Amino acid sequence: MFTRDSEIQGGADVKRQGGRWRTPAVAALAVLIATAAIVGLADRAGYDVSALIRDAAAEFDVPISAGSVSFIGVVMLLLTSGAAAVTAMATRTNRAVLAAVGLLSLMLALDDQFMLHERIIKRYFGIEEEVVMAVYALWATGLLIAVWRGRLKPWVSGLLVPAGVMALSVTADQVGTSYVIEDLLKVTGFGAWAAFWVSVSRATLQGHA
């Protein structure tokens, strides 16, 4: 009996060991294939491949601090997306809300990094910037309602902080104030957004939310 139990335990250990290297190996292969495909398509389209691969400061001879404030905002959004996504996969508690937060944060990060609503979406799909911003606003409003009506209701006051700051940033953009004010408000809002949802994710994993 002891031998049989030991064999079963040994088999389980082998499976766990395999999973530990298999996941990063598959991820590495997927990233390699995806980036190689992007570079290949860019090269066929006549784009300068080095502009995609090399660091912007080295490629375009700009100060190393160029875009650093915007970069901080993107990092905050990716941090939020990762924390929410991992928590949603790890537990059923608050799963729908956290999955929606993770996806929205990822979309905002991609939008901010690649200027999707300013250039790409309008140029290739004919959708105006205001429409895209309205979709984001409705998405965020839906999250606020979900938090208010669900088990995260005690946290709703914390969500109002990033929501309010980002609303001020959008307002500053629409009324045409200084881009400095708009971008500082935006990054501040992203920071508050990250702090709030990372806290919620942690509390969810600990069983406190």
From TrEMBL:
Parts of the chain that traverse the membrane: 21-42, 62-86, 93-110, 130-148, 155-172
Key words of the record: Membrane, Transmembrane, Transmembrane helix
Membrane listed as a keyword: yes
Protein name as it appears in the record: Uncharacterized protein
Species annotation: Tropicimonas isoalkanivorans
